Predict the structure.
Amino acid sequence: MAVDGLDTRILRLLLEQPRTSVREYARMLGVARGTLQARLDRLEREGVITGTGPSLSPAALGHPVLAFVHIEVTQGHLDEVGDALAAVPEIIEAFSITGGGDLLTRVVARDNAHLEDVIQALISMPGVVRTRTEVALRERVPHRVLPLVESIGRATRS
């Protein structure tokens, strides 16, 4: 999907001021409300905008420990293990990967003992061969998309 300059400006506003109304976005951008709404609808339909809910902090919810757990799976059991992972609330993301392991999960925990309990639960799942855990010490670059949006916007103007 091609993102043009107006799309880039719309996405920037959505990321920087997510609680503003569509009417106010249109005013700020100097476009008709209908134009803005049509752009938003297209960006959602084409999968550029994937959600509108709040961003939540696991740490503020009492789970300040963040770890990345690599999971090696018995051949042919990736789907079953993936389904089982979805039932573990402390797993906030899981990806099939290449390289060392089959799955990479992002796991949050209350403390290191809780993290160990979660890892032990993962190890006991049918189809899990082994795990390797890396504990995050400090976030250096928070999740962000705006620099990418701006880069794409610059490329479309060139």
Q: What stands out?
A: The chain has a mean pLDDT of 94. The first helix runs from residue 5 to 16. DSSP finds six helices and four strands in the chain.
